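User: Can you model how magnesium ion sits in this protein?
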Amino acid sequence: MSNPLLQTHELCKTYRLGRVEVPVLKGCSMHVNSGEFLAVLGSSGSGKSTLLHLMGGLDRPDVGGGEILHDGSSLASRSARQLDRYRARTVGFVFQFYHLLPELSVLENAMLPGLVPGGVGAVEARKRAHELLGRFGLEHRLHHRPRELSGGERQRTAIARALANNPDVLLADEPTGNLDVQTGGEILDLIQEAHQGGLTIVMVTHDQRIADRADRSVQLIDGRLQPS
Ligand SMILES: Nc1ncnc2c1ncn2[C@@H]1O[C@H](COP(=O)(O)OP(=O)(O)OP(=O)(O)O)[C@@H](O)[C@H]1O
Ligand SMILES: [Mg+2]
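Assistant: Here's the modeled complex, given as structure tokens:
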């Protein structure tokens, strides 16, 4: 049998605030198979963003605090260059609060991942960003700044950016958290379309109804994951 696309094994993450230790993840084990749409459900502060950042290679677990496996191999065993490639090509990240760069246009924001080490390069990224933004109904906004966009348009731009390098898996952090119900529904439709096109998705949310859109969901409670 083939390996899961992504797997976490007994993942632990503790934040340190001065001398106070705040354990957030206390042994999180889960997997997502290629082509699957998985939701991680958890209340505010349960550690959903923390978990997703670790899975995206944006932060590291505690020393000795478990591991993240991609196609069966641990991220901890990879060189800096291999990790750049993982962050650029394997995962696409949709942040909880958009994180669009205010001085760049919609098109420039969306093509940005193509320019980082391991990315697809400027020419390909521009082409792909343009195509994705068109598909997401933003053809007429390409040269606008993020502040000139609605919340839904900002999130569409952020999703186009996450897909600019044609990743294997989309890691989406509360992608509808800042949107009204209808706009949030449209964003979920767009994510579901990408999933139907073959993309693997891990989406974190505090909302059961949103988690119900996934193939399967797990719940983050007291620093551990359990089937929901
Ligand atoms: N950089 C940090 N330093 C210290 N504590 C942190 C840091 N990031 C997160 N925390 C703490 O870790 C816990 C989990 O935070 P996290 O952002 O992962 O939760 P979440 O489930 O994503 O919450 P929300 O639904 O509100 O987005 C919280 O108690 C938070 O205060
Ligand atoms: Mg969060």
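A couple of observations from the model: The longest strand covers residues 20-32. The first helix runs from residue 48 to 55.
User: Helpful, thanks.
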